[in-house]
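Following up on my earlier thread - several people asked me to post the actual chain instead of describing it. Fair enough. Here it is, all 364 residues.
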Amino acid sequence: MAFYDKFIIKPGTKVDLDKFDPDDTCGWTKEEGKARTAKNHARMKELQEVMYAEHKRSLCAMFQAIDAAGKDGAVNNNGSVMNIEGVQAVSLKQPSKRESDQDFLWRVEAVMPQKGYILFLNRTHEEDVLVARVKNFASKKVIEQRYGLINDFEERHMLNGTTFAKFYLLISQEEQLKRFGARAGNPDKRWKLADGTLKEGSVDLNKYAAKLEGLHGKKLVKTVERLLKDAKKHAGEYEGGDLLETKFWDEHRKAANIALSRNSKKGREWIVVPSNHKWFRDLVVSQVLRDKMEALDMKFPEPAANTDRILERHFSGKKWKHLRDVFNKAREEAANESQANRKGDKPEHKRGRSKQESPKQKHG
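Reply from S.P.:
Thanks for posting it. Predicted structure:
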């Protein structure tokens, strides 16, 4: 039993995200979590190389969340540890004119991973039943149809050899506002918050960030609402943007509850990842990805070339003896090293699941 099992949305479950604790760490300490994540990343790198070489399967890691929940960080921290040649990262931003003119799954279909590749999808096709519901971009009838189309789409790709890992990153409203405040106060991060928020005019974001320091709970929310009104007065026309979306927290939560309930199916279940602590988010994501790849029981393909025959036919004379010796010595050393590594790094799912449990379960 894996420590993250309680976060998996079982098919048929009526989801209520309020029942999940975004501060949950399953008893792991930060040090233990980071150490395990590092081991997971090392193993993921090995498994990705096998997937790329075997060229029979693919993996689609999907990340959905409200703004500032850590999608960018989860994708970067867990995707960059593998060979970039076999990894793709795609961020589904606001659809272009051409994309909007197509079926809503058209742009996702175009980026799905080919065999041997891993795709990290930052925002997903679920946007078209989440944001579309909150903002009334589509009718209820159309949104209802989309749940079924999404399930059919994912099922078809599973039949073609794609494994899905679907992560919903969960943070609290207070944590979201803290991260927005931190962005506003950091010149290197401010662009993330300002994009699409203020259309015209000049607003001193540092002034607003300073007023958020030390605030918590309802007082923090009320202060943000007051600052939004003040910003609108000074900036002229106000557009959506991340910060304003905080006011639609309940609507986003309701839409997510419905989507996770409707689109969590066998073999491609949604996993709610408590993400107030970024290190725990990366622990869960890396463990799930590692477990899913190990479960595929992938193997390197047999070599296409018969090296002994090539050496015998083309490098048999005295002229090539030294180079033959160099080749054979290197081959023997590599074989011995590989055998030693495999003895010392047997996959955890074959050693028993006790290593997968949380520290409290492990030591209790």
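Confidence is low (pLDDT under 50) at residues 195-203, 233-240, 346-356. That should answer part of your original question.
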